[in-house]
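G., the chain you wanted modeled:
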Amino acid sequence: MSVTKGLIEQPAVIALGANLGDRQATLLAATRELAETDGIELTGISPVIETAALRPSGVDHDAPAYLNAVALVTTTLTPGALLDVLTRIERAHGRIRAERWGDRTLDLDLVDFAGLVSSSERLTLPHPRAFERDFVLKPWLAVDPDAVLPGHGRVADLVAGLGDAS
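Predicted structure as tokens:
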């Protein structure tokens, strides 16, 4: 944690995904927009990985594949304000929330915010399913080998526990 101009900077982890349109360009643009937002400093970005689409019923190999990455940031924003930024960026890239876990031009998830554990109707921290998602854990581990997911442990251990099921 550091202090900038009297404001406390908190670390946060953001998962990025896209499976419609120019996926690579969308992820790059969203990363740039995050970095250009007042109160957010991009401190790391993972390599991009490609994964099959996931539906409530399981993996959907017939749907367009996702490109996924994880961004590490520090921010002077509150978790709610950061979520507002993520929602704004998603909308700017044509995100429509018509179907749960449906195809999307851009998905930005707040995975962790300074180790905070909280739950409201709008935001649950850490992200409630991050611990079981290889498309979040693997990029996160690549950009931060010492990462810890609050309530679940070391990301390296979580990735190792995924085995061949991911």
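The chain is about 25% helix and 35% strand.

Shout if anything looks off.
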